[in-house]
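Continuing from the previous page of notes. For each protein in this section, the sequence appears first, followed by its structure tokens. Read the first protein now.
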Amino acid sequence: MIRLFCFLFFYGILLTGQAQSRDVLNKKSNTLYNDAKLLAQSGDQTHAINLLLNIIKKDPPFFMAYFGLADIYHEQNNLQKEQAVLEAGLKVSGDQYPDGYKFLAELLYANVLYDDALKNIVHYAQLKPALTTVENRLLESCRFSVSAVQSPMSFHPDNAGPAINSDADDYWPSLNGEGNTIVFTRLLKADYYGRLLAHPQEDFFVSYKDSAGWQVATPIGPPINTMDNEGAQSLSADGRLLFFTGCGRPNGFGSCDIYMSVKQNGIWSEPINLGAPVNSGAWESQPSVSADGKWLYFTSNRSGGVGKMDIWRAERIGVSIKGFPVYGKVSNMSQLNTLGNELSPFIHPDGKTLYFASDFWPGLGGNDLFVFRLDNIGKMLPLNLGYPLNTNANEEGLIVDVSGDRAWYTASDRGFGGRDIFTFPMPEKLKPHKTSWVKCKVIDRKTNLALASDVVLNDLTANVQIQHQYPFENEGEFLFCLTSGHNYGFNISKEGYLFHSENYNLMEAADRIKPISLVISLDPIEVGKITVLKNIFFETDSYQLKPESNGQLKEMVEFLNKNPKVHVEIGGHTDDQGTDQYNKVLSEKRASTVAKYLTDNGIGQKRVYSKGYGFDRPVADNKTEEGRAQNRRTEFKIVE
């Protein structure tokens, strides 16, 4: 009965200030009011109501009786009666009890009467010298709600269909990077034989998409699904890792912990508890792993946060020999957390766009969905996704595919039964950065067998390593998510094989980037084998190396240090633009520049040769710009 304390305290102030106003407040009404308060606090709400109604009948100007009744009706969740007595009380009190306007605004806001709620909270603000954080939140939420309803977003959700949804509750979708695997949570009320369960049980189901569409979802099975509840999962971009929430388990740290399983040879491993510092004695749940695996976002009510439920993130600090990432350095996302609850984080594969739910940032009521741009920290606040996606109900658990074009979320009572998974086109202003993926299968050129290899992805412009996959982290296949605004280079290496490099320059990607799927064949280290150095770059009409070449140069030095018996030739090639002599000299100088870098960094001069070929050995048609670009290349050839 928190409000009754507020009423009595405020009433005492009124009585002191208006001792002469016996026509409004008299001792008998005050005594009865206190008696009603004590009855309500003891749980006898019926007698309390009768006392307050009697006060109103005999002393209509005694407005605190109306607000006392409103408080009891609020406790009973009788919203219609609460609204009626609040409005009646305000007619009697005028501006003598400003809190009445706030309580009425709260009620109207909860009942989706945003215009009226705004009028009352604005009037309350005019009577108060300053608003508290919570009061200001209500004012801003009312303002936002009125505007959002007047300007609804384009929102046309489609049910994900019977292959995914069932007559049970289906919720919390998660996708892999390719968008052809979905894992979600289903609340089962019966076992697989149709027998009713004593308690509903949460299990994971998985559906795969092929040319015919989504296939009928099946249980993900043991060892992930157990007789306990599993839920709130996150599938990694490459589909190899599954992070999820498990509660009340023998190896748990708190009430709920985050667990992880890795897929090896098509089989999910026994889940492991992520342990400290990710898990604590508090509640940890709702994990979301970044596409590069560097960050794990999650929700927790652990101490040291900003509000009730906060969003935190942990940084990957290593990888176990079994392929399990190891996370540490947990930090609070204080830029987006509030005094309320922030939940269900989803970090998009662009690594910069975070979607989440909050009940405190200005919204339409309950948990609303928001987007926060990590590259605009300190410059912009979280953006509400708008109406009618957000309502006065609880919205959470939204994800967005790699392309950023389509979102997935859960809604109730609009599908096959209970809660269903829906998908909808993402409005342009809510989309993440332009992102796509490159998927590679690495094989031995001679045997066509898959090769688990070292794969390094670099941001060439920033000269930083973005991702490193070790051989025990892949089985000859890997998937990287690439975001516009970067010049990417990646290098694939395997002991006993000649390395391979690829380049994807997305600095000026004007449109959505198309996915790339390719097979890369590695050659055993043998005389005559050649690899093109796709991440060696020169200034135009110059033999001066660009800084973007640093990653490739270092990888060449590393390869030669690991293979001390290998001698190589650096070959320079050009297109056919210009004279034969000009291109010959330019190609020789470029090859010599790369060779000099190697010898300057510890590779013996007798092991490195250089030669310029001009445009004598084209690999593509010089009549097109694309062909000429392929002909302008630097090669790395094993000669001894």
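Done with the first. The second protein uses the same format. Note its length before scrolling.
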Amino acid sequence: MKKIFSRKKYGRRALAAGIFLWAALFAVPGTGMKARAAGDVQIAKGVFAEDIELSGLSEAEAAAKIQAFLREAGSAQITLIAGGGNKVTVTADELGLSWANPGLVKEAAVLTSGPNVIECYKAIKDLEYENKVYDIDLDFDIDEINRVLTQECTRFDQKAQDYTLSLEDGVFVVNEGVAGYALDVERSIDIVDEYLRNEWDYRSCEIKLDVENTVPRGANGELDAVGDVLGTYTTSFSTSGSSRSANVRNGCSLINGTTLYPGEEFSTLQTITPFTEANGYYLAGSYMNGQVVESFGGGICQVSTTLYNAVLLAELQVSARSSHSMIVNYVAASADAAIAESSGKDFRFVNSSDYPIYIEGRTTSDKKITFTVYGKETRDTVNRKVRYESEVLETINPTTDNITANANLGFGYITVSSAHIGYKAKLWKIVTENGTEVSREVVNSSNYKMVPRSAVVGVATDNPDAYNAIMGAIATGNVDEVKAVIAAYTPAPEQPAAQDIPPEVNAPAEGQG
């Protein structure tokens, strides 16, 4: 029977002798120790790849055994926990499981039969006391992990919905918000990859991904402070037709009920668009380049203008405001705020107060629109007063009329569009304390272009005198001269009524207002 040497019992000298004897057996022919091809070497007893025993196997057999084990492990279910506790389950194979160090079988094979006799002998002696265990290194496909996270897990992301206010029978009601969460894909890729390569036990498991949670604004009772009137303003649309009136009411309703937190910006254009029938709008008169045109949302600028004045009284920060290109008559010059979807004209403001605000918009049966801004009043409302004054710097009156002759229309036909006076104006903010003015500043400067009266005149007639007379009147650039010629050459009973098109005083210039 072969004698087993103990390093503990015989020490270094005995061990050296054993190594010499073992080496000699390899060197002397006929000892029974035959050299083998590398692929035929059987792995020594006590060699493992983690829990997989490789004893007595060739390299190919060992590799096949490990690969079979990993194929089975590849079907293990990996459950990824995304936002809101939602779960996505995939297999390890779907995450690109692969064997990263197949060279370990070569190492295992040459552990006790390599060219270094001394090292081989030491390895054999070590195996008598302790198994040799190799780690199986794993790799996963980062692109596949990214695909699963992006396509499957981010669909559970949820945008936070802030707490909001509503005004019911004069009492503010706080409406619950919804928490938000969003997956951090890059960080979650690292978490999944690191766990599977270093901690995974080849069985089904759960991995919690990196999810950023957002607490909705208002969750800490901020809205309880809202209740004071910061600014309120009313305009009338009593001269408007049914379609324009409907547009004013619709735009007002789309803004009504807005809750705005400190630092948050409000965009009127974004809130009330699109100007479509599906969004509650009708065709109504509006001005484009000095002409009356029909457009969806005609009249909407009265909504933005009324809100603008309420915001000014609340002393909130205005971030964008445009005047109409031509004057309107429902507010003073420079107190308007035009809206135009085509050109991007918008009225925007920021809640520059330290508390949330609530915007109430309402219309009445007698065609008045009112916006009221509620919040937490921190200003001195007893001794301090704020008012706004419009100052007209220049008035520009038209000097001639624009008259177009139309040979396809009969003599006596005339349509007239009224003129618009041009203005240059400023809006002043004036603050008084105890009745004494303490500040005066310019809020905005506005230019409203002048548009002359225009007319289309029919000149088709068989009467050369009438034709020459009407053409001469047109040449004067005076609509009244044209009307006088028409009256002179047209018998009274047959005289068609001249059609004067009055300005749509509530329609915008260059937009939907």
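What the second structure shows: Residues 7-27 form the longest helix (21 residues). Residues 7-139 form one domain. We return to this in next week's lecture.
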